[in-house]
Each structure stands twice: as structure tokens, then as C-alpha cells.
Amino acid sequence: MAKNYLHREFHAEKPNEKWLTDVSEFKYYNGIEVHKVYLSAILDLYDRRIVSFKISDHNDNPLVMNTFDEAVRQEPDAHPLVYSD
């Protein structure tokens, strides 16, 4: 189970203080063929804005890291809450 670093405090006092990320899977059909596409997004808890998103045919680490890299490129002065053990 993932560690709960935010302790259900899903608000931030200023922009780029706390970011959340998630990957969602969507299915679509081409005729009878089922395909999947993945949306990786980073949300700023201050104003609920999407900082960055990427779409890919693969749910993998590069998808997540590319989303994060884009967020940092868009918000170079951001220092969101980071936890490590």
C-alpha cells in the first residue's frame, strides 16, 4: 500500500506547493478491435488546474516521467511538496 503523505489535506496555500498525479486508462474501439490509451496528468491542489498531461499507448515509467518533466518545464520556479523515505 502507498504511504499517505498528505494525510487527506488536499488543499494548498499557494500555487505549485502540492501536486498530485494519476494515470487513467481509457478503452476505445476500432471496429471490433479494443485499444487502450493512457492519460497521465499532474494536478495543482491550490487551484485544481492541470499543470501538465501526456497521452500514450503505453502505461509505463516514461509516460509518468515525461509528464513530470513537462510540468517542471511549464513551471520552472515550482517546488511542489516532495517526500522521500
Structure description:
This protein is elongated. The model has no long low-confidence stretch (mean pLDDT 90). The chain contains one helix and three strands, in the order βββα. A three-stranded antiparallel sheet has the order 1-2-3. The protein is of the alpha+beta class.
Q: Please provide the count of β strands.
A: 3
Low-confidence stretches: none
Structural class: alpha+beta
- SS element count, helices: 1
The CA-CA distance between the termini, in Å, is: 15 Å
Largest sheet: 3 strands, antiparallel
Strand fraction equals 35-45%
Helix content: 10-25%
Shape: elongated
User: What spatial order of strands do you see in the largest sheet?
Assistant: 1-2-3
Q: From the alpha carbons, calculate the radius of gyration and give it in angstroms.
A: 15 Å
Helix-strand topology string = EEEH
Mean pLDDT: 90
Q: What does the secondary structure layout of this molecule look like, with pairings?
A:
Blueprint: E1 19-30, E2 33-44, E3 50-56, H1 61-74
Antiparallel strand pairs: 1-2, 2-3
Brief account:
The protein is α+β, with helices and mostly antiparallel strands and 85 residues long.
Task: For this entry, give a set of tags.
85 residues; alpha+beta; three-stranded antiparallel sheet; 3 strands
